[in-house]
Amino acid sequence: MAWEKLAEDKKARIAASIPQIWRLKSTPTEDSVMDYPEKSGIMTAEELAMTESSATDLVTKMAHGQLTSVAVTTAFCKRAALATQLTNCTLEFFPEMALARAKELDESFKNTGKVVGPLHGLPISLKDQFRVKGLETSMGYVSWLGKLDTENSVLVDLLFKAGAVFYVKTSVPQSLMVCETVNNVIGRTVNPRNKNWSCGGSSGGEGAMVGFRGGIIGIGTDIGGSIRVPSAFNFLYGLRPSHGRLPYAKMANSMEGQETVHSVCGPITHSVKDMRLFVTSVLAQEPWKYDSKVIPMPWRQSEADAIKTKLGSGGLTLGYYNCDGVVLPHPPILRGVETVVSTMKKAGHDVFQWTPYKHEYAVNLINGIYAGDGGTDIYNTLKESGEPAIPNFADLINPDLPKIDMNELWDVHLKKWAFQSEYLEQFRLAEETLGKEIDAIIAPITPTAAIRHNQFKYYGYASAINLLDFTSVVVPVTWADKSVDKKQEAYKALNDMDKTVQAEYDPEAYHGAPVAVQIVGRRLTEERIMAIAEEIGRLLGNEITP
Amino acid sequence: MAWEKLAEDKKARIAASIPQIWRLKSTPTEDSVMDYPEKSGIMTAEELAMTESSATDLVTKMAHGQLTSVAVTTAFCKRAALATQLTNCTLEFFPEMALARAKELDESFKNTGKVVGPLHGLPISLKDQFRVKGLETSMGYVSWLGKLDTENSVLVDLLFKAGAVFYVKTSVPQSLMVCETVNNVIGRTVNPRNKNWSCGGSSGGEGAMVGFRGGIIGIGTDIGGSIRVPSAFNFLYGLRPSHGRLPYAKMANSMEGQETVHSVCGPITHSVKDMRLFVTSVLAQEPWKYDSKVIPMPWRQSEADAIKTKLGSGGLTLGYYNCDGVVLPHPPILRGVETVVSTMKKAGHDVFQWTPYKHEYAVNLINGIYAGDGGTDIYNTLKESGEPAIPNFADLINPDLPKIDMNELWDVHLKKWAFQSEYLEQFRLAEETLGKEIDAIIAPITPTAAIRHNQFKYYGYASAINLLDFTSVVVPVTWADKSVDKKQEAYKALNDMDKTVQAEYDPEAYHGAPVAVQIVGRRLTEERIMAIAEEIGRLLGNEITP
């Protein structure tokens, strides 16, 4: 069958998965669809309240019998149906399976008076890399359509054991190697706050879904910003844990087996509180007993407490940078970093300027790693169906591009290791000068606020952190504001990439777009960085006090 | 200069590094040189006692001012000088530098009344992969001779901070990829217990040195048995930690940058007590702040205590196997496993038969990984000087052998990951059946007792564990005994490799050779496996009670 036909068929199946009563009567014409759930008349006031609550509150209420999983799941299924129709963020929607599962959980609770686990009854949305037995994982590739999974990804299994309910799998860009979300199966996913903006990528479907509150905790993956960019573009929190903290086994992927820079999975949430609920719930399942790549490292409350202790005495020591030396962020992002810096200083924390160490070198190195097989893996997957490459990365999958040779790869490994260790030395040297430990670095995650379609060009703010395998939590900060974020007309670009990125800024077009920063810590510092991100969010006023 | 000349020059320099008064008057003719230190007249009774003590006792005495580092260092330098002359185990010997360092430490202690760290004053021997500023790291390659290191390996730096004294770097086989120790620079290192037996490899110089008590703690590396085999062949304890536990940065290596299976470093000691001293001392230096590959995981006393608790109540649950399904071990090894099994059963522990899972598949997979670049890296290093390949692996470095292609490598990564995760599943399934946690697996580490030269053929008992990245501690058990370890004449070999290995057994030739087992645990279980190894050693009567 022609690839276009297969894609049409899939789109029809997605549309058909939405019950008649949840379908839109008309397509809204506004740029933002954020107020649509209330306007639609499809959701009850209780359902709106549930979806605008927190995962932590919902599981608490379900554990006390104050809410049923069927009620909560129904609410999220409805809102996810709306998100699907309004932002085109969905590749698989299965409310019937979800409600059957919710009913089972409710019955179990009724019979035993006990929850099956810490996520009992909670709907969790999944990026379409996660395999759920009996469903499709197309990852937006036409050639993968119609193949039903015969087993669950390990994380799906463990979340299931913890009591989660699955109901939707969300869209990704073809190949996953792009920070926007567009593929030949369902086309483009848009930002629920403005259809002219990207929802980010590659976990862009999750970004749009959770941003719209069609999901309360979404799970994405990140090899070069793919959790953090959608979090930033949708005013959400996102965790890129270090490799080995959370299980990735039995997931679908592009360039599977590439291990020079690992893709990792992590949550996209509305609060650090919910992020912690997710991480502690997964770690309580001892994922290292299922996935050999997971480090046997349970949740370390002592690490989180170390930050709390500092908050109560003397304060944090935070580095920051607003430019990596390659591309200067747009004015809204510069203001975002400055807002966090001044907020933290005002609260008594020690904030100093961090000099990014060889980021350009790092970005070039990781770009070479992404292109390690000359695009062969992706090329072959496209060839199977005959679908074309999406324009965003078409130049990278020419089969005539050379592959890295084994000894060249080993050289890349050595360069990566040396760079990582040199970066650690930068920390040590700075700590010697400061006479104290550095708790985190505040940095841009993208050079732009939620970007206009097809304009995402510079991945370096995200990908340098992937090369370092540092832990990073995205914190939403503010919104682009044309009245203050003026274009710097006299700016002299650092290089061609910088020039391209600067040219994209238009105060009018970006007005109101979400602005975020990332909070970065050394490898495997999830507990600490989450605690710091929570405090920053609290001080900014966009995070509920724990 | 011809490679032979460079090698001669190096040998002359090693010989010259031994002070006249420590030189042998005559070459002993006996097979074993174990009693030579006492017979030589070179060492005092006090020096003999110090070298026959434990590292733990020595650091305690130095910390209480009951011994000086100069005295201890002198004793080990003398004994190392003897080991060098009797077993040919040394590539760098630098007693002057060591004694200057020891003097500094003694003065510091005298002035401050404090030790600089937990290893204050303790001599530690290093495999010749560790770089020490100002010295050579030839690793037995002629082409690397004469190049002085400009910086220390990270582990050397951290041990230095902990108070260690360095005095010797020991020999390795050319390329490191062999479990015996022979190179074109100094030739072959022999087993101090019998010059007809191998000292093992690739950390064979360490095995001979520590076995002879020219060292009390030696550090080796292991990518396919290279710590464990020399430990086994010299009646020593050896730890192969999981990757990421101890630092490897800035060390010399063959096939540097190959990361599909990581080489790791670890201690070779006379007791688990000394092993623990080493590991806790290194972890106390926070190696993860220096080497990006090290996991931020301090010493977990709670994990060691979990084993202690089990010893006090209910006992351990231990699997065992005496054959991996590929090669049946020689009779002394079968008896070694049986000795441990019956000892543990008698002590009330639950010991059950473990079925090795797809070990042949694992061994084939890892052999393909070792040969990933078709031997290019090693071939090029040999070509530089013109030295020939040692016979043990000459067939593996033909430059016409194909390299793995990038996409093939990714496929290997996936196979490795799947195999590792399937092995974890075997643990889970067995634990379900048993209704309790498995604490460790008892297994052979080699199919033979300390082997005759050039006869090491089958690496699978060691290398399957490397592929799994499991933690393993070698425990010395007993000695081959011609009166009980009879050749099984009627045995029908499983395959050609098995036939070759069986043919090698000769009760007479192996009489008295060290026999060991390895105690294996899941990834990053160092504290637990060390505690179990200690208990096994205690019950066997070859480990001092802590």
From TrEMBL, chains A, B:
Catalytic activity: a monocarboxylic acid amide + H2O = a monocarboxylate + NH4(+)
Keywords, sorted A to Z: Hydrolase
Keyword Thylakoid: no
Presence of keyword Hydrolase: yes
Pfam families: Amidase
Active-site residues (renumbered): K127 (charge relay system), S202 (charge relay system), S226 (acyl-ester intermediate)
Binding-site list for substrate: L176, S202, I223, G224, G225, S226
Domain Amidase: 72-529
GO MF annotation terms: amidase activity
EC number per UniProt: 3.5.1.4
Enzyme class, UniProt record, top EC level: hydrolase
SUPFAM superfamilies: Amidase signature (AS) enzymes
Domain of life of the source: Eukaryota
Family that this chain belongs to: Belongs to the amidase family.
Protein name: amidase
Species in which this protein is naturally found: Lachnellula suecica
Lineage, uppermost ranks: Eukaryota, Fungi, Dikarya, Ascomycota, Pezizomycotina
Gene encoding the protein: amdS_0
